[in-house]
Amino acid sequence: QVQLQESGPDLVKPSQTLSLTCTVSGGSITISYYYWSWIRQPPGKGLEWMGALAYEGSNYYSPSLKSRTSISRDTSKNQFSLQLSSVTPEDTAVYYCAGRLVPSTAWVPVASQEYDYWGQGTQVTVSS
Prior knowledge:
Elements: E1 3-7, E2 11-12, E3 18-25, E4 34-41, E5 48-54, E6 59-61, E7 69-74, E8 79-84, E9 93-101, E10 117-118, E11 122-126
Parallel strand pairs: 2-11
Antiparallel strand pairs: 1-3, 3-8, 4-5, 4-9, 5-6, 7-8, 9-10, 9-11
């Protein structure tokens, strides 16, 4: 059973970079055809898919966040990480990491509802 756990600071100052790490257990992040994503939920709003990392290392980003988002991985630790730059209070949210095994390379999951495996989520507040 794949399990995910987010870690990182719970408070970030405006204009700084938000950095979170997701540790995956129960399966390697490099196994075909897994995709690994970051998804967030601002207070009072719905889930927002931010971006994905494919098993072979390719990245996919939400157009609205692409200029500020970077997702990377450390295969030796079976982890993947999120960096969101130039944060504002509007980036305050519960941040989730999630995973999905798809049946073929033709399918890239770019919506939160497509993901089967979820971390418990971590609250990040952007405030001075």
